[in-house]
């Protein structure tokens, strides 16, 4: 059970006090609210300060600017401005309540109110619905402190009504449960399951932000096991994993439990700090399997091509959720190669780096280490016999580290010759042939056919003129 303080474990930071002080000196009421209060009672690292106030947002803007703060109109339709104090942002929102979210993005109507208690009542979960003021103390109307102490996420008010108003709260409940390591209170849980289908109507970028929070919590394996109805509505590509028997002597679990184990495995192998791309890749590494399954005459399951199909699914899912392109590219490359046999030779290392560099230029070394953690996690999620592979990958890691330390060749710019050398050696001018010759040379070096030495490369180039016919498709008459 979490240890919960009666009062915040640390004082409201000076930049937050300046905002409270300016609003109260002008005759309004103001409180610190939401995540800062929750995290300070749990004594976990300090959260940004959000403030709620009786001042209308125009007054807030005026008062804070007059007190010398930089103020931005970040969400005035909802009564929010952001003050930047000592370089740190403080979101200040006018007390408000809201009606239904019929466009699934924004509440139809925001009504400003005078009483902080109404503002707290519109918040999603009891642990997020507490306010704190350094002199007036903790304002906890819904038992948030006790729920923190018992480790439960509970909706404020009737959970069915609250999820019906805004179905995104269904996924937020799972995000907070994952992040805090809490359970969901039983009535809230029943409402989650009943309302989860509504998530499909929610704007994808809102879903993406919360789902990314679930994945980044490091406990998505918990969510897969305990809140699958919710996460599979957020990411429908997960849906066919439940109950998918892999019909394989390498697999002791169905695809869903396997995926949960791989997600937990990468957390362990990456020391609790996998990258965002690695976490998403673990979740989606086998997403192509349901579409690629075939059972042979001996009853064994095969999933030919699932790496490629899974990579496409991964890209579509991440971009569909409006996650950054770089994250989608990295995760896609990891899924694409998650099953690749890695041979711990110099050429094996270079081949892998070359492939990863093509997928994500400039990121191959870092992706290679992430791929190792994904493969280790994958090995742990199969059978006991396969788990041994997780250890065997140490040999590849050692080869990778040694090759990187040697300053190995896996990009065109690592070659000991450049475009000018190629033009002189072949007697050609600038054009696509030069690039083609360089990439062909690189492949020859990567595959150990020639050494990355200037004289050797130039001699090789002349002795093995590459086929450039593909660069000059003949015109059909
Ligand atoms: P985090 O550290 O994850 O940002 P947080 O508590 O600050 O935690 P936010 O999503 O930033 O969470 O929201 C700030 C506060 O606004 C919440 O604590 C909650 O009180 C309220 N809130 C946010 N979104 C909703 C929502 N969809 N419905 C009801 N209340 C919400
Ligand atoms: Mg926040």
Bound molecules: adenosine-5'-triphosphate, magnesium ion
CATH architectural designation of the largest domain: Orthogonal Bundle
Could you tell me the CATH topology label of the largest domain: Hypothetical protein af1432
Ends distance: 78 Å
Radius of gyration: 28 Å
CATH C-level label of the largest domain: Mainly Alpha
The shape is globular
Q: Which spans have pLDDT < 50 for at least 5 consecutive residues?
A: none
How many structural domains can be distinguished in the coordinates?
4
Name the beta content range: 5-15%
Spatial strand sequence of the major β-sheet: 3-4-5-2-1-8-9
How many helices? The count is 22
Largest sheet: number of strands, sense, barrel closure: 7 strands, mixed
How many strand units? 13
Mean pLDDT across residues:
92
Helix content: 40-55%
Going by helix content, strand content and strand pairing, the class is alpha+beta
List the helices and strands and how they pair.
Elements: H1 14-25, E1 30-33, H2 35-42, E2 50-53, H3 57-66, E3 70-75, E4 80-85, E5 88-94, E6 96-98, E7 110-112, H4 116-121, E8 131-133, E9 137-139, H5 144-150, E10 152-153, H6 159-165, H7 168-180, E11 183-184, H8 186-195, H9 204-216, H10 220-226, H11 228-234, H12 255-269, H13 276-284, H14 289-292, E12 294-295, E13 301-302, H15 306-320, H16 325-336, H17 346-359, H18 364-380, H19 384-405, H20 419-426, H21 432-446, H22 454-463
Parallel strand pairs: 2-5, 10-11
Antiparallel strand pairs: 1-2, 1-8, 3-4, 4-5, 6-7, 8-9, 12-13
Helix pairs in contact: 6-8, 7-9, 10-11, 10-12, 12-13, 12-18, 13-16, 15-16, 17-18, 18-19
The structure holds adenosine-5'-triphosphate and magnesium ion (MG).
């Amino acid at each position: 059970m979490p240890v919960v303080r009666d009062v915040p474990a640390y004082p409201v930071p000076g930049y937050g006090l300046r905002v409270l002080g300016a609003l109260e000196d002008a005759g309004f009421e103001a409180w610190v609210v939401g995540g800062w209060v929750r995290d300070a009672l749990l004594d976990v690292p300090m959260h940004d300060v959000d403030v709620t106030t009786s001042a209308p947002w125009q007054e807030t803007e005026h008062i804070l600017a007059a007190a010398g703060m930089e103020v931005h109109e970040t969400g005035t339709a909802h009564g929010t401005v952001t003050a930047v104090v000592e370089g740190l942002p403080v979101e200040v929102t006018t007390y408000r309540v809201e009606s239904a979210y019929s466009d699934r993005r924004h509440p139809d109507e925001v009504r400003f109110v005078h009483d902080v208690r109404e503002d707290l009542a519109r918040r999603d979960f009891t642990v997020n619905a507490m306010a704190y003021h350094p002199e007036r103390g903790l304002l906890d109307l819904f038992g948030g402190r006790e729920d923190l102490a018992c480790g439960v996420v509970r909706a404020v008010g009737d959970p069915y009504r609250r999820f019906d108003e805004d179905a995104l709260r269904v996924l937020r409940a799972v995000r907070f449960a994952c992040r805090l390591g809490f359970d969901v209170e039983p009535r809230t849980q029943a409402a989650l399951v009943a309302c989860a289908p509504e998530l499909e109507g929610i704007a994808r970028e809102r879903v993406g932000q919360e789902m990314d929070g679930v994945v980044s919590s490091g406990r998505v394996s918990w969510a897969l096991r305990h809140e699958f109805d919710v996460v599979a509505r957020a990411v429908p590509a997960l849906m066919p994993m439940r109950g998918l028997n892999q019909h394989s002597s390498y697999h002791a679990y169905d695809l869903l439990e396997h995926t949960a184990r791989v997600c937990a495995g990468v957390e362990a192998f990456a020391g609790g700090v996998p990258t965002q791309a690695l976490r998403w890749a673990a979740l989606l590494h086998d997403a192509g399997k349901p579409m690629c399954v075939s059972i042979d005459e001996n009853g064994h399951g095969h999933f030919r091509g699932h790496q490629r199909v899974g990579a496409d699914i991964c890209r579509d899912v991440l971009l569909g959720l409006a996650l950054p392109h770089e994250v989608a590219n990295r995760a896609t490359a990891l899924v694409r190669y998650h099953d690749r046999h890695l041979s711990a030779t110099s050429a094996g290392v270079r081949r892998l780096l070359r492939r990863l560099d093509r997928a994500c230029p400039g990121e191959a070394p870092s992706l290679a280490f992430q791929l190792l953690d994904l493969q280790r996690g994958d090995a742990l999620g199969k059978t006991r016999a396969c788990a041994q592979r997780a250890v065997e990958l140490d040999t590849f890691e050692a080869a990778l580290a040694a090759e990187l330390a040697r300053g190995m060749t896996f990009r065109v710019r690592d070659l000991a010759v450049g475009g000018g050398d190629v033009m002189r050696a072949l007697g050609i001018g600038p054009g696509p042939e030069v690039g083609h010759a360089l990439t062909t040379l690189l492949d020859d070096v990567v595959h150990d056919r020639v050494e990355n030495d200037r004289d050797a490369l130039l001699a090789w180039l002349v002795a093995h003129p590459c086929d450039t016919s593909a660069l000059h498709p003949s015109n059909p008459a």
